[in-house]
Amino acid sequence: MSAHDNIPETALAWHREGAGAALATVIGTWGSAPRQAGSQLAISGTGAIMGSVSGGCVEGAVVTEALDALQDGHPRILDYGVSDDDAFSVGLACGGEIRILVEPVGRALPEDILAQIVDARAARKPLAYAVNLATWQRRLLGPADLPTRFRDDRSGMEDTGEFITIFNPPLRLFVVGAVHIAQALVPMARLAGFDPVVIDPREAFASEARFPTTRLSHDWPDEALQAEGLDARSAVVTLTHDPKLDDPAIRTALTADVFYLGCLGSTRTHAKRLDRLQAAGFDATALGRIHGPVGLDIGAKTPAEIAVSILAQLVENLRRGA
User: Fold this and answer.
1) The predicted structure's pLDDT at residue 140
2) Of 170, 187, 231, 301, which sits most exposed with the smallest number of CB within 10 A?
3) Same domain, 137 and 52
C-alpha cells in the first residue's frame, strides 16, 4: 500500500499527534468529475494534506473548509462545479460537479470508528463506513451487509440516506514462476492497482535484477502462498510449466477463497493438469475455477501480449465474476 493510499491511517495519526485532522470524502459526482465516490483527502490542522478529492481543482477550497470544521467540530457537505477550463487543466475533456463530505476527526467522526477502520485495513479485513447524511448517525458494516458494493469496490449512497465508503483490502497478485511473461505482467498489474508478489525457488530467475522493486519469495510455492494467507482479494497465476512448482501452488489456491486462478499451458497441458488434480481429490466444481489455458483468447503471441491477456481476464473475473 503506497503512502498515497494511507488516508485513514494518516488522518488518525495526525489526530493522535495533536495536530488535528479532518477527512474529506467524495460522496457524489456528476459529469466528468476527476475522482470517483469514496475518494478521500486527509487534512491536518496545520494544512498538510494526503490524498485527493479532485485533480487539483477544489483541494484548496476543501482545505479551507476542513480547517473551519476543525474549529467548530461540525461536519459539512460541500458542492463544487468544475468548469470546462479547470477540467482541461487536469486532463479532462469537460467539467462536472463534485459533492464532498468533510468530517473533523474526534468530534464529528469518532476516533474509535476511525481506529477500527485502520485496524481492519492492517488486518486485511474488508469494512464499510456508513454515515447518514440526515441524522449524522455512523456505523461500520461488513461484506455480508453489502456484498455487491464490496465485490465492485463501489462506494455510494444507499436508499436509507447513508453514504457508504468501502474499505477493501488492497488487491494482490501472486505470480508463480519468474519467467519472461512475469516480467511483463508484474509492472502491468502494478499499474492496474495490484500488489504483485513473484514466487520462484529458483533464485537466478526470481532476482532483483529481473524484477526490480518487486517483492520476491524463494520459498516453495505452496509454502509461500500459505504464509501469505490467500483471501478473496487475492489472485494466483502459475507460469512455470513445471508441475513440481505449479501444482503445489494450484492445490493451495483451490483450497482458498481467491477470486482468480489462472494457469499457463496449452489445452493438452491443461488437460493433463486437470487429470493430476482430479487424482489428488479435487472435484469438477473446484477444477472449474481454474482458467486454463490462462488469459483471454486475443491471439496473443509475445510475452507482453500474453501478459495483457492474463491481466484482462483477471480484471474481468474481479469485476464481473466471469
Assistant:
1) 98
2) 301
3) yes
Which residues are within 8 A (CB) of 23 and not within 5 positions of it... i.e. 6 or more apart?
Answer: 7, 8, 11, 40, 41, 42, 43, 102, 103, 105, 109, 114
pLDDT of the residue at 322: 61
Are residues 160 and 180 located together in one domain of the fold? Answer: no
Provide the pLDDT for residue 33.
58
Q: How many Å apart are CA 277 and CA 4, to the nearest integer?
A: 42
Q: 86: domain range?
A: 3-167
Residue ranges for the chain with pLDDT beneath 50: 1-4, 88-94
What is the structure's pLDDT at 97? Answer: 82
The residue whose grid cell reads 476516533 is: 111
CATH number of the domain enclosing 288: 3.40.50.720
C-alpha dihedral (114, 120, 123, 125), degrees to nearest 10: -160
What was the pLDDT predicted at 86? 55
Is 15 found in the same domain as 69? yes
Q: Residues 40-67: pLDDT tens digits?
A: 999 999 999 999 888 667 888 999 999 9
Euclidean distance between CA atoms 212 and 65, whole angstroms: 42
Q: What is the dihedral of CA 282, 285, 291, 297, to 10 degrees?
A: 140
Separation between Cα atoms, residue 278 and residue 53, nearest integer Å: 50
Residues with Cβ within 8 Å of residue 112, at least 6 apart in sequence: none
Indicate whether 163 and 175 sit together in one domain: no
Residues 19-33 as b/e (b if ≥16 CB within 10 A, e otherwise) read ebbbbbbbbbbeeeb
Residue 159 sits in the same domain as residue 177:
no
DSSP 220: -
Query: What torsion do the CA atoms of 258, 259, 264, 267 make, to the nearest 10 degrees?
Result: 110
